[in-house]
Amino acid sequence: MDTQRARAVLTDLKSALDWQEDFYRDLHAHPELSHQESRTASLVADRLRESGYEVHEQVGGTGVVGVLANGDGPAVLLRADMDALPVKEATELPYASTATADDGTPVMHACGHDVHVTCLLGAAQLMASATEQWKGTLIALFQPAEEVGDGASGMVDDGLFSLIPRPRVALAQHVVPMRAGEVATQSGPTLAAADSMRITVHGRGAHGSMPQSAVDPVVLAAMIVVRLQTVVAREVAPGEPAVLTVGSIRAGTKSNIIPDRAEIQLNVRTYSEQTRSAVIDAVERITIAECQASKSPREPEFEMFERLPVTDNDPATTDSVAGTFADFFGDRAGSLGQWAASEDFSNLATEFDIPYTYWGIGGIDPEEFDRASKAGRVAQDIPANHSATFAPVIQPTLTTGTQALVVAALTWL
């Protein structure tokens, strides 16, 4: 890409986007949970119309798609996610969220999706204001329900393909705990596949004073949890990334009652289908064996939910974006590495059978990050995504994220 074109599009970024910082603060103060992003979607649709886009609303529930056709050329899809998390904010920012869901659950933009929305709206406006610098079709897609893993497929199932031309490439970004102002790419498997599993094991209930009359599902569940710790340590090859986390055990109602069942919830993160299958098979094998060892009266029950694919960045597409970033950002462009987080963005691209890449932008105050890095305390001192204290600095985060989307899109347009 000719970086001169990108600089021409971005010339008036600060003056043209004088609304952007206040818009971000407003989004952050008014987060909405997955599938409930109605206010956010309305604001997005209004902004896209003001910029001259053909706008499609309520795609897959609350999804919004803006299409800007500008002559012959490829179509490029840029995606941002819109939903927030059930987290009580603890940032003490003047624009901190005090929002709650209908059931009283606190809600916070603890993963930076408010950054993503604001940056994509800015990029969409700048591209619409500089159509003499590019040809083709720009698709700005605002996706609901990333946090529960079904927003992308929901938009596809609701007829997304009939609303937009087939993109040449799909592009997306995520704010991460790096120095604000930096961008980072990664070729190949970048974000992990995620598989959540709910396991119900059965026992035989009894009075706590008569354990000989019971099959104790609490002890059974505890043995399963301990044994599951060996799966990654002893069944996955060294150097092959995998994570198995038991996040919940529920059993019983009273200290002197042995219950008749226990529920275990766990999450598996892997980067290849072979490892994914092997770990899930091991979980089921160990659970069944422990149930047999405990004389469980019934077979265990397994339920898979919230399943997300590997984000496997196309090498050629990633190389193109990385080269463009290096030209534009200089030494602020680097390598992202593999992250054990998960995403459903790739479902948009795989359904279209098109290449994609997904990169990171930094959101942490550079001085704060450097202090933590120098002390070897990044993990301890820098709030991570999904933390109640996760708070990207507004600048240069918004400017960098907006620039990255424009520069990446112009690699093809």
Automatic annotation (TrEMBL):
SUPFAM superfamilies (alphabetical): Bacterial exopeptidase dimerisation domain (SSF55031), Zn-dependent exopeptidases (SSF53187)
UniProt cofactor(s): Mn(2+)
Residues in Peptidase M20 dimerisation domain copies: 196-286
Cofactor note: The Mn(2+) ion enhances activity.
InterPro entries: Amidohydrolase (IPR017439), Bact_exopeptidase_dim_dom (IPR036264), Peptidase_M20 (IPR002933), Peptidase_M20_dimer (IPR011650)
Keyword Endoplasmic reticulum: no
GO molecular function terms listed in the Swiss-Prot or TrEMBL record: hydrolase activity; metal ion binding
Keyword field contains Acyltransferase: no
Keywords, ordered alphabetically: Hydrolase, Manganese, Metal-binding
Annotated Mn(2+) binding sites: C111, H113, E147, H174
Protein name: Hippurate hydrolase
Organism field: Saccharopolyspora dendranthemae
